[in-house]
Structure formats: structure tokens, C-alpha cells
Design goal:
The complex is a heterodimer. Chain A starts with 5 loop residues before the first helix and ends in an 8-residue tail after the last helix. The longest helix of chain A is centred in the C-terminal third of the chain and has 24 residues. Chain A has a single domain, classed as SCP2 sterol-binding domain (Nonspecific Lipid-transfer Protein, Chain A, 2-Layer Sandwich). In chain A, about 45% of the residues lie in helices and about 20% in strands. In chain A, helix 2 packs antiparallel against helix 5. Chain A contains 5 helices and 5 strands. By secondary structure, chain B is α+β, with helices and mostly antiparallel strands. Chain B has one domain: Cytochrome P450 (Cytochrome p450), CATH 1.10.630. Chain B starts with a helix and ends with a strand. The chains are: A alpha+beta, B alpha+beta. Chains A and B meet through helix 4 and helix 5 of A and helix 5, helix 12 and helix 14 of B.
């Protein structure tokens, strides 16, 4: 199964970062990177912009400025946040396209790992077993 | 969760964690390693100063003696590779994609290694040797014709690149690009290589490009088989199992790195060692065929091209009297093990007749022992056969080294040949 609409993409894939900003351990590290990450999803289409310094997660559009942009299907995003997608292999197979400061994404990598189990727990708590990979 | 309740340990007063330490010469580093080896062969250090991402661990154990490097290497059930093999922090994704079976443990490690090994039939190995012979001769033709230049560009870099990519079946037009990215895989910390880019970008570009090349080549060979290793890999089957394109892509990256930089630097630094120790050169030339096999082991020991590999403790254990906790990093310093005076008499001496020579240049034994060591030995035999017999007037200047904690790499080495 997939996300039904942009609002769901925003709720779940954006929600990962909201959970991170609410975490006293992860939040300062995330804010310390100072990255503005634009995640461009397709099927369904949604642009979710994460401003780590400001601690905000907003719906944006193609013109929203960012430090780095990651483009992928919402399904790939869903699998990614469950720790099921290898980023370099996905980039090599063009499943994920990265533009801008790739190095900044590496700085997010250790934080991402901590967020996988929470994302899975959120899906389970909401009864969205259909989204579990 | 013993880590949370145990008090923090004191770091060793000798530092190996700063980039400055890895920017110094091997001789400088050896002064530190010698002290550690002789007094504290297992020592606790701060996380390595890395360029890619902030360290998550509190520190790293550094193992400097020959015996303890062997102990770690031969006990993969205690010191695993599946939780990373680099001395500094690198994202897990990158390690998995770049490491192939290097970053795996049993049962997947032996299964995958067996699959890859099955592609190296005796007939294929003989073909590879013939290719290397021809490559070495052509490269020394080029050296003699050039008269002067950078030995790394003209000789050391060319042979491994040519061997690996001809063996794989990569089109000639793509070999320079592949070799360039193979460099990026180990040299992101070096300012010259990065040329203003962030280290993470260098690594990411290199990795993604090599993965793409490997997967594309695998796809091509599935559709149009040729007489090369890639075709053998896509066709390889052990116990009904085949390699996926991702696994082949990842192996292509491993081969590009493991097969490129190791032999390259051994060639450069052995050539320099022969210039600095002409008696050893004369000794070898007096009976090349009789002495070269023993001499090659000394080339690898003396140069120690791969300086470090890391494991992770799978349980609480004791190593060299130190209590190691589950999850802690354990780094082996091969370049230190290869200078261990309790194993090697006069270890700083370049002695091509040294025998036995139980160096750890190809690893300290165990399941991760260098699989390509036979290719490296063929390359060293053939290139030094050519160089020593055909270019006696070769003169080398001083090598410029790369900064990094993984491979002891020579960036450039000026030469003239009369």
C-alpha cells in the first residue's frame, strides 16, 4: 500500500523530523547541522521542507530554497525511513536523486538510524501496517 | 547495557586520533606505534578525527602487536566485520555499498566469497597472469619512452588499474574514470584530492559512480556474455544461488579499491626501497627467479600498504589484558604489526631474503585474509622483472604522501630514467 495523498506524506515522512525535533538528544544534533533539506516526493506528489536550524517541517514547492534536495517516490521514502533503502545503491539505481550538498546528508546519517524504529512504531501505533516494509 | 553504567576510561596519552598523526610520515607514526606495541599493545583512544560525520562512539581500541592482530583476525565470532571495518566513522549505508563481503560475517561472508572465488578458475588465473605480463612490459616501454615524469602516473597507477579493469571487462574508455573514483574512495580526507569539495561529496560521487558502472557492466554481460570476470560473476552459481546486480556492483567497488591502491603503493614504495638499498637490488638481480617470491613478501611487509582495518566486539572479552566491552571498536594497525621486533629481526631493515616472513600485509589470517593476494603477487613479480631488468637507470625523487588512516598512499614520485 502507499500514502493516499500529500497530507499523509507530510504527516508521516515529515513527521519523522518532527519526532526528531521533539527529542532532547537528537534535536540539538539535528539543529547543529543547519541544513535545509527539501524532500521531493512523487506518487503522491509532495514537497516537504525541513529547516533544521529553525526546527520546522513545512510543505513547500519546487522553488523553495534548500541546502540539499532528495527526490524519490513516496514509497521509497517510506522504505527509507524504515531503514530498508541503501542510499548510495538507491542513488546508483536512480531511485533517489540527490542535488546540492551531498556531504551535509552524511551528517544526518547517524541521526537517521535512530529515527527508523520510531517511524516504524508510529506506523504501527496508527494502524498503518499496510505501510510496513 | 554495561556501557552505560561503566565509568569512562582514560585515553592513552599517545595520540593516534588526530588527522595530523595520519598526515605525518610512516616513520614518524612508527615511533608512536613502537611505544604502544612494546608497552601497551591494546590501548584506548578518542574516536578518530574524521571528515565525514560526527563520531558516535566514545573511543576505539588500537591493537599494535603482531600476535594480537592475529588473535583479532582469527576470531571473527568475537571481532566481527559486519558492524563496520573502517577506523573512522563512515555511514553504514556507505560501508555496505562499498564493502561487499569485506563488511560481512558468517554465514553470508563465506557464501559470497565462495561465489566470487568460483569465478577464478585456474584457466582464468592463467589468463590474468598473461595479461599482467603484457601490461607490465607495455608500461615499462612507456616509462623508458617518457624519460622523466611522475612514477605514480606512468607506472604504479597504471598497472593495477589495467589489471583490474581488463580482468573485469570494463571498456577501455571508462577505465580512467573508474580509477579516478577508486582514488576518491580512499582519499576523501586529502585536501589535494578533494580540491575544495567536501570530503563527503568526494566519497559519495566516487561510490555512486563506481556502483553505477559495476551494475551497468553486470547488466551488459547478462545480455551479452564475454570472456571476462564480470561474465563469470553474473553466471556464477553456488548451491543454486547467484549474485544480484547490487552485490556485483558492490563487489566492483571493493575490487576497484582493494585492487587499485594496494598494489599501486607497494610498487611505488618498493621501487624507492630498491633505490635506497642497492645491495638488496643486487641480491635480487643475482637470482631473480629464485628470490622474487620471497622478496615479494618483504615488499608487502616493508611497505604495509593497508595500514588499518577495524572490527567490532560482539561480546565482552579480554584482549592483551584489556577488558573490551560488547560493541566497542577494535582497530588493527597492520603497519605496526609488520614492525614487531618480537617477530621480525631488525624490522626496519628491507631484507628481500627474510624468511619466514609472517607479515600481516594481507591481513592477520582468518576469513578476511586478502582474497586477491595472488593477483598482487603476480603484478609485483612482473613489474619488478621489467623495471629491474629494463630500467636500470631509473632514478626516483621524494614521494609525496596522501593524508589518511587507511592506505599508505603515494600521491606522486618524480622519476628520470637514463
Amino acid at each position: 500500500m502507499s500514502f493516499n495523498d500529500a497530507a499523509e506524506v507530510r504527516q508521516y515522512l515529515g513527521g519523522v523530523f518532527e519526532a526528531a525535533f521533539a527529542d532532547p538528544e537528537i534535536a540539538p544534533q539535528l539543529q547543529g547541522t543547519g541544513i535545509v533539506l527539501k524532500t521531493v516526493y512523487t506518487d503522491p506528489a509532495a514537497v516537504v521542507v525541513i529547516d533544521t536550524a529553525a526546527g520546522t517541517v513545512e510543505l513547500g514547492d519546487a522553488s523553495t530554497p534548500s541546502t540539499a534536495t532528495m527526490t524519490m517516490t513516496a514509497d521509497t521514502g517510506n522504505a527509507y525511513w524504515q531503514g530498508k533503502v541503501n542510499l548510495p545503491l538507491a542513488m546508483a539505481k536512480s531511485r533517489i536523486k540527490v542535488e546540492g550538498n551531498v556531504a551535509s546528508l552524511l551528517k544526518l546519517a547517524p541521526l537517521g538510524k535512530k529515527l527508523y524504529p520510531r517511524y516504524i512504531a508510529t506506523l504501527q501505533a496508527d494502524g498503518r501496517d499496510d505501510l510496513l516494509v | 547495557m554495561s556501557i552505560l553504567v561503566s565509568p569512562p576510561r582514560a585515553y592513552d596519552p599517545l595520540s593516534v586520533s588526530h588527522l595530523d598523526f595520519w598526515a605525518a610520515t610512516a616513520e614518524e607514526r612508527e615511533k608512536t606505534f613502537r611505544q604502544l606495541r612494546e608497552q601497551r599493545p591494546v590501548s584506548w583512544h578518542p574516536p578518530l578525527e574524521g571528515a565525514l560525520m560526527p563520531p558516535e562512539n566514545e573511543g576505539v581500541w588500537v591493537v599494535t602487536s603482531h600476535a594480537l592482530i592475529g588473535e583479532v583476525s582469527k576470531h571473527p565470532e568475537i571481532y566481527c566485520s559486519g558492524r563496520g571495518f573502517q577506523f573512522e566513522e563512515v555511514p553504514d549505508d556507505f560501508l555496505q555499498a562499498a564493502g561487499s563481503f569485506l563488511g560481512m560475517d558468517a554465514p553470508r561472508h563465506p557464501a559470497l566469497r565462495k561465489l566470487v572465488s568460483s569465478a577464478f578458475t585456474p584457466k582464468r588465473v592463467a589468463l590474468i597472469h598473461e595479461q599482467i605480463k603484457a601490461q607490465a612490459a607495455t608500461i615499462v616501454d612507456g616509462l623508458l619512452a617518457a624519460g622523466e615524469g611522475d612514477f605514480v602516473e606512468v607506472v604504479s597507477k597504471r598497472l593495477p588499474m589495467w589489471t583490474i579493469y581488463e580482468m573485469m571487462g570494463l571498456d577501455e574508455s571508462r577505465r580512467d574514470e573508474a580509477a579516478h573514483h577508486a582514488d576518491g574512495m580512499v582519499s576523501w580526507a586529502d585536501e589535494d584530492v578533494a580540491a575544495g569539495r567536501e570530503p563527503g561529496e568526494v566519497l559519495s560521487d566516487a561510490l555512486v559512480t563506481l556502483l553505477t558502472m559495476g551494475m551497468e557492466l553486470a547488466e551488459e554481460r547478462r545480455a551479452h556474455p564475454c570472456a571476462d570476470l564480470m561474465t563469470a560473476l553474473v553466471q556464477a552459481e553456488v548451491d543454486g544461488e547467484r549474485l544480484t546486480d547490487e552485490e556485483i556492483g558492490s563487489f566492483f567497488v571493493l575490487l576497484s579499491v582493494a585492487g587499485n591502491d594496494t598494489t599501486r603503493n607497494t610498487i611505488s614504495l618498493t621501487a624507492k626501497a630498491f633505490q635506497d638499498h642497492p645491495d638488496q637490488r643486487d641480491l635480487l638481480m643475482a637470482d631473480f627467479d629464485g628470490r622474487i617470491a620471497t622478496a615479494i613478501e618483504e615488499f608487502v611487509r616493508y611497505v604495509s600498504p593497508v595500514m588499518t582495518f577495524r572490527r567490532t566486539a560482539t561480546r565482552d572479552t579480554v584482549l592483551g589484558g584489556q577488558e573490551i566491552r560488547e560493541g566497542e571498536w577494535v582497530a588493527m594497525i597492520y603497519s605496526s604489526g609488520n614492525r614487531d621486533a618480537s617477530v621480525f629481526t631488525d624490522p626496519d631493515r628491507f631484507d628481500i631474503t627474510r624468511s619466514p616472513n609472517p607479515h600481516v600485509g594481507f591481513g592477520g589470517g582468518g576469513p578476511h585474509f586478502c582474497m586477491g593476494n595472488f593477483v598482487a603477487k603476480m603484478q609485483l613479480r612482473e613489474i619488478f622483472d621489467q623495471l629491474l631488468h629494463r630500467a636500470p637507470g631509473l632514478r626516483l625523487g621524494e614521494p609525496a604522501y596522501l593524508t589518511g588512516n587507511f592506505v599508505r598512499a603515494v600521491k606522486s614520485l618524480p622519476f628520470t630514467v637514463r
